[in-house]
Write a structure and sequence with these properties.
The protein starts with a helix and ends with a helix. The longest helix is centred in the first third of the chain and has 63 residues. It is elongated, with a radius of gyration of 36 Å. Among the domains are: 65 residues, Methane Monooxygenase Hydroxylase, Chain G, domain 1; 56 residues. Helix content is 83%, strand content 0%. By secondary structure, the protein is an all-alpha fold.
């Protein structure tokens, strides 16, 4: 629309300025203007096509980089999990820590934190294990590992004979995760805690 208006204005300008000259001259000017407009349109179409190609290429590059990153991340996680299963807990922690540091906003983070916590637990490094279980429970409460992490928190406090904190953890499982598979075990731990408190 803008081009049509521009064309009309140019034509009117040429007609006005060239009234004294012959009609052949006006026709030649109009043909010249038409040719220029055609070349401009052609150039604009080419530019738009080039921009589309660049946009498509940039999107493909982004997807390829994302795919490479996803594969690398899965590879690191698989290695860490394999090391855990092989009971090589220190190396499992090292491997899984790479995911925790590098991919902080990722779905794989809860599993990585969980197997790190389990590795520390197996090494009897209860303080570190507790910290990682707490991270899962506090910061990833909707993770499928959250109720188990909370159960392990209660279990560690129970081992350390900190019955108040242990009881709070098991009570939270009963209140916050009513369908948890750890519900029955939590109730049993609470009974043990009551018995141990009576003995004191």
């Amino acid at each position: 629309m803008k081009k049509q208006i521009l064309f009309i204005l140019i034509v009117l300008s040429v007609i006005t300025s060239c009234k004294s000259t012959g009609s052949d001259r006006i026709k030649k000017d109009i043909i010249g203007i038409n040719e220029q407009l055609y070349q401009l349109e052609k150039s604009q179409i080419t530019t738009e096509e080039n921009l589309k190609k660049l946009s498509v290429n940039a999107e493909m590059d982004k997807k390829n980089k994302s795919k490479i990153g996803e594969n690398k991340k899965q590879e690191i996680y698989a290695k860490g999990y394999r090391l855990f299963l092989e009971e090589n807990y220190p190396k499992a922690i090292q491997s899984l820590k790479k995911i925790v540091v590098k991919y902080q906003d990722d779905r794989i983070i809860d599993n990585s934190l969980f197997w790190m916590a389990e590795s520390y637990f197996k090494l009897n490094k209860l303080k570190q294990a507790l910290n990682y279980y707490k991270l899962i429970y506090r910061h990833l409460p909707f993770s499928e590992k959250a109720d188990y992490a909370l159960f392990k928190i209660g279990h560690i406090y129970f081992k350390q004979k900190d019955y108040s904190k242990s009881d709070i953890a098991f009570l939270r499982i009963l209140k916050e995760y009513p369908d948890s598979e750890f519900r029955k075990s939590s109730l049993n731990y609470r009974k043990k805690i009551k018995k141990n408190r009576r003995r004191k």
